[in-house]
Design goal:
Elements (H helix, E strand, L loop, with lengths): L5 E8 L16 H8 L2 E7 L5 H10 L3 H4 L16 H7 L3 E6 L14 H7 L3 E4 L12 H8 L3 H14 L15 H15 L6 E10 L7 H4 L15 H4 L8 H7 L6 H31 L6 E7 L18 H4 L3 E4 L7 E8 L2 H10 L11 H5 L9 E5 L2 E5 L3 E5 L5 E6 L17 H17 L5
Parallel strand pairs: 1-5, 1-6, 2-8, 3-4, 3-5
Antiparallel strand pairs: 2-7, 6-7, 9-10, 10-11, 11-12
Helix pairs in contact: 4-14, 8-12
């Protein structure tokens, strides 16, 4: 009898594509590096939207923001009648579970009162938390535990102080490491997998809330990184300060209101951010060790990704919510049950492709426009997509192997970069006569993708 593989989805919130030890030298992620060495890393993966709720709705449903018309973190609740990859996997005979953040419905009240929604979305066993900011006001199993331990009020006061004074301050959380949200998520998932004795293969979704701001990593991990050793932020280029000669877009307004942290601020927040990434990596290592101790590592498909990136001072910006590379490019690693070559697949990919990858492994189909990554795992030279798109407030980005373009809500190309010659987006070619034909070509590709991915309403 063939034993179907288990499924493990490891996900972070706001992790840059370069925040992996196997990609950069400023952060250590030995366990994620191991997954990359035993799987395939997709180096050109982009989120479908650099905002939590639109991105997470897209992953669950395989639909783009131009299908869902959800563009921001408003009071949107995913309709339980909407097909999800979780429902498809459960219908295929898997026991599904979720530990951590989904953000498929508003972060308010008591998340435990909405477990029925999680069940309808396709998740059997649930321990849901809010994000780092929401956890100051949202009840969950985790925050109830904080309250019982006398820790919740200190957490609330710390967040209120940060965001009323200097939101990008880097200092340790008032929570001890043992109660920190990313530790909680990792340990709850680890305990569940250690004790799992179901008759069905498991599909476990572990969704960490970090390294999303605030920069509050506990000292045990934050102190591992020296701010002086962090890479400097990308400067704000001339095109970002002066839009003369090209169309304008939403990014121009954001750049004009940027917080522009100091070099010292950037160094400190990057060191703190790196500590959070390593903390999560440590939790992932414990989960992998548990699965390995059960003798199931080589019968488990493992996918690691993040919902969007983080500017961390690049261009004078923090957070995300625009279409520059540090905000839209995300890590993506797929380790098949038997392992793979440890190669890098440079083909464009979209983070919604995670859904079809899980579903194909489970022997079923994903909803929406997700496309399985497994052919690109079997053959790292496989061309997965000709290009990938991301969307933000009606604007659409296209990347392929050589270029990137963003159209504003008027359909005009206002960002255009040569990804080979200018990987850090310091030279904007939009509006230059010499790039007119390229603008037209990439705009046509964007419009063609939008037409191909329409759904009836």
């Amino acid at each position: 009898m063939t034993i179907r593989p288990n499924l493990l989805l490891l996900m972070t919130d706001q992790q840059r594509a370069d925040a992996l030890g196997c990609v950069s030298d400023w952060v250590r992620t030995p366990h994620l590096d191991r997954l990359a060495a035993e799987g395939v890393r997709f180096s050109n993966c982009v989120t479908t939207s650099p905002v939590c709720i639109p991105a997470r709705l897209s992953l669950a449903t395989g639909l783009y923001p131009h299908n869902t018309w959800v563009w921001d973190n408003g009071q949107h609740t995913l309709d339980p009648r909407t097909p999800t990859w979780m429902q498809a996997v459960r219908a295929a005979g898997y026991r599904t579970s979720l530990f951590g953040k989904t953000h498929l419905h508003p972060h308010g009240g008591d998340l435990r009162d909405r477990e029925h929604l999680m069940h309808q979305y396709g998740l059997d066993d649930v321990d849901e938390i809010g994000g780092p900011r929401a956890s100051a006001r949202v009840l969950s199993h985790m925050t109830a535990r904080w309250e019982e331990a006398g820790l919740w009020q200190a957490y609330r006061e710390d967040l209120e102080n940060r965001f009323s004074t200097k939101p990008h301050v880097a200092r340790p959380s008032p929570l001890p490491l043992s109660e920190y949200a990313d530790t909680y998520v990792g340990q709850q998932a680890n305990d569940y997998l250690r004790d799992y004795d179901g008759d069905q293969p498991f599909c476990c979704w572990v969704s960490f809330g970090g390294p999303h701001e605030p920069w509050d990593t506990p000292d045990e991990f934050a102190q591992r990184y020296d701010p002086a050793q962090m890479p400097a932020a990308l400067p704000q280029p001339e095109w970002a300060a002066d839009s003369t000669g090209r169309p304008r877009g939403a990014l121009d307004d954001r750049l004009s209101q940027r917080p522009d942290p100091t070099a010292e601020d950037v160094a400190e927040l990057r060191a703190n951010y790196a500590g959070n990434v390593e903390l999560i990596d440590d939790q992932i290592g414990q989960i992998l060790a548990t699965i390995e101790s059960r003798g199931e590592l080589d019968n488990t498909l493992i996918v690691f990704t993040s919902d969007h990136g983080e500017m961390n001072g690049d261009f004078g910006l923090i957070y995300k919510s625009h279409l520059l590379d540090p905000a839209v490019r995300v890590p993506l690693i797929v380790r098949p049950p038997a392992g793979a070559s440890g190669a890098v697949n440079d083909s464009p990919a979209e983070w919604i492709d995670v859904a079809a990858t899980l579903c194909e492994t489970a022997g079923t189909s994903a909803p929406g426009f997700s496309r399985s990554l497994l052919p690109g795992v079997t053959d790292a030279k496989h061309h997965h997509r000709a290009g990938a798109i991301s969307e933000m407030n009606g604007e659409v980005m296209w990347i392929d192997l050589t270029h990137k373009a963003v159209i504003n809500t008027e359909g005009e190309v206002y960002l255009l970069f040569d990804r080979t010659a200018d990987p850090h987006e310091q030279t904007n070619l939009a509006g230059q006569p010499s790039a007119a034909d390229l603008e037209t070509e990439l705009k046509q590709r964007i419009l063609q993708r939008l037409v191909q991915t329409q759904v009836s309403r």
